[in-house]
Fold:
Amino acid sequence: MRSVLEVEVKDPAVIETLRSINSPTLFYDNYCRLCYRFAKAIWKLSRGRIAVVGMYSKEAGWLRSLMDLKTFSSVSWFVVPGKDIIYGGRSSIIPIVKEILIGLVKGGGNEFKDPMPTTCSEILPCGGIKGFIYRTIHILIKSHKVKLLYH
Structure:
């Protein structure tokens, strides 16, 4: 299922935050050990070009405010500076691969500071092979794009 959600951005704080993002950023489920490993691998492959932020962290509050919790929590999200689209799930694969390839050449200065979660997400399973299969299929099936409209 692929959907484009158009969101009118009126909050000046959200607009300012969006304008201050200066590197590609992956927002991942920071309550999930499997997602943590996925995010860390993306960060390493991009040689620090892609910033990584927990979806449930204070820094991601602006992103959570743009959509309902069910949509927000259903996939990881990817933001590319200067774009008016936020990619979720399957739709983020090509932009992430592109940024990884650029990172192989240019690298980046983003650090990975998040600690490994000590528990698993209660929203989606993340433990064992069952969790791995579930999360992988979930990312490949779910696809969202959030088109940002400024007025």
